[in-house]
Amino acid sequence: MTDRLSPDLDEQAREILRGNDRGGYTVPTDGLYPYQWNWDSAFAAWGFSTFDIDRAWTELETLFSGQWEDGMVPHIVFHKDDPGYFPGPEVWGSGRTPPTSGISQPPVAAILARLIWARDPEAGRDRIAALYPKLLAWHRWWKRDRCGSGVAAVTHPWESGRDNCPDWDIGMAKVDGSNVGEYQRRDTGHVDASMRPRKEDYDRYLAILFFGRDCGWDQREIIRNGPFLMEDPGITFILLRAHEDLAAIGRELGHDVSELEGWAAELRAGVPQLWNPQVQGYDARDLRGDGFAGRVGSAAFLAYLADAATPALDKRMDEIWNRVSYGFPSADPAAEGFDPRRYWRGPSWPVVNSLIALGLQERGHAEAAERLRRETAEVIKKHGFFEYFDPIDGTPCGGDAFTWTAAIWLTWAG
Ligand code: 2M8
């Protein structure tokens, strides 16, 4: 697809967003991901806001058309059936219209909605006012159904958005994937299998999915007895920032935001429990018994976004980042489990880089923020709008003409 695009990169990025538009929502990339994904869509909206503010708001509105009555915003909304993706709507069995998955994804929507609103306060006022109660209900869901231990936990690696990163290895090791039966993956028909999660990961992803489906997505049961439950520094920092941004939005709209302020304060008080002195960084924790994961990946550095960084974290950032050349690696190259091209086990992800850089910039690390922008821009200029990149040699990986890479080009990297 890249060959047919305009020679101007800004225009190429806009063409990718328009090309991945399926009418009110954007797919992450053609073929590999034919549905609406939660955090991809929030980034898409941010990208659209640079040239079509109305379309930006529509993207978020369509995403919230999949919201559940308990406030959860699912990680996939299956607007139109497509046999090119597995597991599709019939596997998730949500029993809803539109059909959806049964788990959520990183709550970046309020953070990006605030930035979108700032681009055109007039045009956005009614749109954000209508979205506000829906965002609030979703944040309440996070608080009630995921933050019981003091920080945010995920019930499935897919809920974290960082699917197969080494953070989840200890939790995944306890999941029995031996009884999921035969199934046909579709992802490896679209992209190089060596850049995707392995079969043993997929067996376990399905086992966790089946547990949720078989109990009718009963959140209490999933939290109490589900096969996987781990605290996630990534979602914790994103949610903390998102609570604060939603409170700012609410204040501007004249709402009482004390509830949101309370959730943010509680979450902030929980952050120190994620600090693992052994690895000198924020670390995932297994709530099914095994303690810290012992890994410092890109999620730890989302702490800047939530104003939760420490001098020790600054030091850790330099160490890890200096082991690579093209943006922040999703896993530490010096740690066990690192794989520079296998999805979330090491590659540099432009979207995550954009969030880390936003935090760095705000916290007075302008030079580091600029370095992250420069390194991310360099691989995009050289190779195109790929899903992710090898952080050591810049090799493009995964899907091409990728929506969120195009979006962060327009808003930040370009
Ligand atoms: C990836 O995840 C999906 C499952 O949700 C998959 O591999 O099938 C992740 O990178 C996730 O963060 C992302 O939202 C999704 C679509 O880009 O792809």
From TrEMBL:
UniProt keywords (A-Z) are: Glycosidase, Hydrolase
Q: Which family does it belong to?
A: Belongs to the glycosyl hydrolase 63 family.
Checking Gene3D superfamilies in the record gives:
1.50.10.10
Name the InterPro entries for this protein. Answer: 6-hairpin_glycosidase_sf (IPR008928), 6hp_glycosidase-like_sf (IPR012341), Glycoside_hydrolase_63 (IPR004888), MGH1-like_GH (IPR054491)
Q: Which organism is it from?
A: Limimaricola pyoseonensis
- Give one GO term, molecular function aspect: Glc3Man9GlcNAc2 oligosaccharide glucosidase activity
One Pfam assignment? MGH1-like_GH
Q: Which residues form the Mannosylglycerate hydrolase MGH1-like glycoside hydrolase domain?
A: 33-405
What is the top-level taxon of the source organism?
Answer: Bacteria
What name has this protein been given in UniProt? Mannosylglycerate hydrolase MGH1-like glycoside hydrolase domain-containing protein
GO annotation (BP), single: protein N-linked glycosylation
